[in-house]
Amino acid sequence: MKPMLTRTLIATSLVAATLVMVAPDASATLKPGDTAPDFTTQASLGGKTYTYSLADELKKGPVVLYFYPAAFTKGCTIEAHDFADAVDQYKQYGATVIGVSHDNIDTLTKFSVSECRSKFPVAADEKATIIKAYDAAMPMRDSMANRVSYVIAPDGKILYEYTDMAPDRHVENTMKAVKEWAATHKQP
Fold first, then answer.
1. Residue 110: closest CA among 180, 187, 49, 30
2. What is the helix (H) or strand (E) element at residue 26, kind and residue range?
């Protein structure tokens, strides 16, 4: 092997090894039993912008809080459709749904109608403060959310956490956690 190619391969290997060692732990999300950070932010539901308060929503029942990387991308659109299809079932168990991304509120106002089908709100976190508070930042790009779903109990404690960039099991898994919670708690 030529010396220049060998040096390039060694340098590339060292850089890759260093990145692996310093990369944030992808499983550094909040865990069941942790207190969910409270937040208030701009959200849109059915194309209408309003101020969303987690504390206010928790007074009504559990909250399914899901983080997604960016509106109108393939995986995030699939996930929004899945949550929209399941909203009525979540409501049967007293739960509400909110999606959060780094997108601006104008983008989310459109997304709330076309992809969320006016069924649940999506919240803007342009500065990624909520994303970071929930340890839901994408590794190597902390201004964007990873695909992370939480179920938060009315007492503000995390009941369930699920992280997977594939969008197809977030609804199934959070629904199971909501049903388990509802089975042990009296509905209003």
1. 49
2. none
* Structure-token pair, residue 55: 């504390």
List the domains of the chain with CATH numbers. 27-183 (3.40.30.10)
Collapse the DSSP code of 22 into the 3-class scheme (helix H, G, I; strand E, B; otherwise coil) and give the result: helix
Maximum distance among all alpha carbons in the chain? 74
User: In this structure, are residues 88 and 95 in contact, taking their beta carbons and an 8 Å threshold?
Assistant: no
Phi, psi of 87 (to 5 degrees): -55, -45
Give residue-wise pLDDT tens across range 171-187. 999 999 999 999 998 76
Q: Confirm whether pTM is higher than 0.70.
A: yes
Question: Buried b / exposed e across 164-186, counting CB within 10 Å, b at 16+?
Answer: eeebeebbeebbebbeebbeeee
| Among the listed residues 70, 76, 79, the one whose alpha carbon sits nearest the alpha carbon of residue 144 | 70
Of 54, 63, 76, 151, the catalytic one is: 76
Instruction: Determine the Cα–Cα distance for residues 179 and 182; give it in Å rounded to an integer.
Output: 5
Reply yes or no on whether 76 is catalytic.
Answer: yes
